[in-house]
Amino acid sequence: MAVLYASVFAYSGPDTLHLVGRDWGVQPAFAPGNEVDVGLLQYKHLDANAARTSSGKTTRKEAPYFRRGMASRVVYDDEFGDTVRKSNQVTDPQPMNHAYASFVKSLIGAIYLHAGRAAAKTFIQQHILSRHLDISKLFQFSQPVRDLARLCAREDFEAPVARILSETGRLSRSPVFVVGIYSGRDKLGEAPGASLDEARIRASVAGLKAWYLYSPGQKTLPSDMEVASGGKEGEKKWEPVHVDMGEIVA
Fold first, then answer.
1. What is the number of structural domains in the chain?
2. Which residue ranges does the record assign to the Large ribosomal subunit protein mL44 dsRNA binding domain (predicted)?
């Protein structure tokens, strides 16, 4: 779930939407004055030494070890796994990236309202989801060898075994070893390293990523089954995709 939250934040978080708005040419405008029209989206900067009011508290301060487990974040927190603020009590000044993100979300909402669901989906696909995100770099394994062994045991595979595929310069200053991780006759992962242990760990990480980073070829989205804008039912038939049991609990 941590990787899912990170990927969602990378695609639609305030920092990403801030850059999207800047790419569109959205610029901030100061509060109404002699050079700014009243109808524009406006704001004013808060001075660094300005005193903030003590009234209008938002949420309590984050207490350590209090309701911050992954299951709690799934049930109680927002789409990014962050604590949800109490409604209608946010009085602190908003950062610039949140203001830009609010503009992008409002524009998508306006497209959905005036042009329909299909136009909104196309707009999101072209401007948000079309950006490349290397999800493989979001994974972090503290004990990849142990996690791969637990994964094989859970799936009733043979225990993983590390085998040297090739090597060069064993007695030199910079040797290179290529190690593969096998489960029976199936190779799970392969990676080079400056030592046998490093290559074995990297190969285990490659095997774990190969398992978790699968992508179904033909997938049907739930929104494809909804009623079209013309009143006709969706043409696609619902076909559920494979859902993995989840991450390894070691």
1. 2
2. 139-218
Tokens of residue 39, six digits: 């109808």
Q: Is 230 exposed, middle or buried (0-12, 13-18, 19+ CB in 10 A)?
A: exposed
The Cα-based distances of 99 to 41, 51, 165 in angstroms read 10, 21, 54
Tens place of pLDDT per residue across the chain (250 aa): 778 888 888 888 888 999 998 888 887 766 656 665 655 555 566 655 555 554 444 444 555 545 566 666 666 676 666 666 665 444 556 778 888 888 899 999 999 999 988 899 899 989 998 888 888 888 888 899 999 999 999 989 999 999 999 999 998 999 999 999 999 999 999 999 999 999 999 999 999 999 888 877 777 777 777 755 444 555 667 777 777 776 665 5
Note whether 25 and 130 are same-domain residues. yes
> Same domain for 67 and 155?
no
